[in-house]
Write a structure and sequence with these properties.
The complex is a heterodimer of chains A (124) and B (306). Chain A is an alpha/beta fold and 124 residues long. Chain A is built from 5 helices and 5 strands. The model of chain B has no long low-confidence stretch (mean pLDDT 83). The chains are: A alpha/beta (124), B alpha+beta (306). At the A-B interface, helix 1 of A face helix 2 and helix 3 of B. Chain B: It catalyses: ATP + protein L-histidine = ADP + protein N-phospho-L-histidine.
Chain lengths: 124, 306
């Protein structure tokens, strides 16, 4: 069965590209362009992994990450942070809070993100 | 810069200590002088010490001002690095992702309408990157000194034409958000002396901001006359500016506290540049009124050309 990935990012053009690239790599994808929808989809659709952006409005990725980790239904879903936000200590902060990886958007092409997801989900 | 900042602090503290010691020693010498002659000498010395201490004190006040300026520069620099790193990374990452997507041969597999959307998105991200770079470069130009446009360098400019052009430039962006963008010309005279590029930049920044922070309704560019002044207003039905944020609104990197905790898509320099440009015109002024949740009106006042 193909793994189901939930992408939460308010940059619609990037979301489109990531979705298409992941689908081409055999993943099933769900999209959310805002935090609230993302949270609902995470609860209802039970994805295998979540790709989460941090910079979103009006609710940012930090809030949704903490909500995901508080809820027993979603707490165990691995979350990869995929963001342009870089500030000192942010990587450690998110990993300590339970993110399985922290990827900077400028450093990871869609195929590399796909490879990272496969390694986390231990897919060949 | 950090090194200089701390050197100032160490020097200031040492100087304070030296002044206190000098005054104390001089006082002790006056109090414990064995003869009247020694007392006169020591009082003279004390007066001398007090004069030197006065000069040193002035120097310390100057140093403290320098420290304050330096601290402000450091604060702005740190804010700039945070903001610039995000604002530049955002379009760069989108462009790189799109190119990598292309390199993997995925664009060819898209249906025609999605292929067109892909190209449009890539183009818009390029524009976004250009805007951030332009804003940063222009801000550094205004940063060096307060610029005033010399009359001989200005040319006659019909602001109605500029406003109409700006309206056309932003119509697509407004429509994409479901907003109406209107231009209303109620002015009898619309010609001022200005630099077309600069004034266009200032008005564009206001319109861009208005569209960015308006969720529903409309943005209107309105021209009118008040005596010998041309008034250009950008009126939106947006989120408004909280009263606590209004005083600092034209500062670099200032944003309303109700715009979210994280950086917006702009450079954070738009309103700062608009103010600098408008005030660089002789008699040029800019102001705004805002009601939270109801909207904001920015007004540019420029003297009409004679």
């Amino acid at each position: 069965m193909m793994a189901k990935i939930l992408l939460i990012d308010d940059e619609a053009d990037l979301l489109f590209l990531y979705t298409k690239a992941l689908m081409a790599d055999g993943f099933s994808t769900i999209m959310a362009t805002d935090a609230e929808t993302g949270l609902i989809k995470a609860k209802n659709e039970k994805p295998d992994l979540i790709l989460l952006d941090l910079v979103m409005k009006p609710i940012d990725g930090f809030k949704i990450f903490s909500d995901l980790k508080k809820d027993l239904n979603t707490a165990k879903i691995p979350v990869i942070i995929l963001t342009n936000l870089t500030r000192q200590g942010l990587y450690d902060e998110m990993i300590n809070k339970g993110a399985v990886a922290f990827l900077e958007k400028t450093d990871y092409a869609p195929d590399e993100i796909s490879a990272k997801i496969k390694s986390i989900l231990q897919l060949s | 810069m950090f090194k200089r900042f701390f050197t100032y602090q160490i020097l200031a503290n040492l100087a304070r200590l030296a002044i206190s010691l000098l005054v104390l020693v001089s006082l002790i010498r006056v109090i414990f002088s064995p003869t009247r002659f020694d007392q006169v000498i020591n009082i003279s010395l004390l007066v001398l010490v007090l004069i030197v201490a006065g000069f040193l004190w002035q120097f310390l006040i100057w140093t403290a001002r320098q420290q304050k300026k330096l601290a402000e520069v450091l604060r702005l620099r740190s804010k700039f690095i945070d903001l610039a790193s995000f604002q530049l990374r955002s379009p760069v990452s989108a462009i790189m992702t799109a190119l990598s997507f292309w390199r993997e041969g995925l664009v060819e597999k898209l249906p025609a309408p999605e292929k067109l959307e892909f190209i449009n998105n890539l183009y818009q991200r390029g524009q976004q990157l250009g805007q951030v770079i332009r804003d940063v470069l222009q801000a550094s130009e205004f940063d060096t000194e307060k610029i005033t446009f010399a009359d001989k360098h200005l040319s006659l400019l019909d602001v109605a034409v500029v406003a109409e052009q700006i309206k056309n430039n932003f119509t697509e962006a407004a429509s994409a958000k479901g907003l109406k963008l209107l231009f209303k010309n109620e002015a009898k005279q619309t010609t001022v002396k200005s630099f077309a590029d600069y004034l266009s930049e200032a008005i564009s920044n206001l319109v861009d901001n208005a569209i960015r922070y308006t969720k529903t309704g409309q943005v209107e560019i309105r021209l009118s006359n008040e005596s010998k002044i041309l008034v250009l207003e950008v009126i939106d039905t947006g989120i408004g500016i909280p009263p606590a944020d209004q005083a600092e609104l034209f500062s670099r990197f200032s944003r309303g506290s109700n715009t979210g905790d994280l950086p917006a898509d702009g450079s954070g320099l738009g309103l700062y540049l608009a103010k600098e440009i408008v005030e660089a015109h002789k008699g040029g002024q800019i102001s705004f009124t805002s009601q939270l949740g109801r909207g904001t009106t920015f007004s540019i006042y420029l003297p009409l050309a004679k």
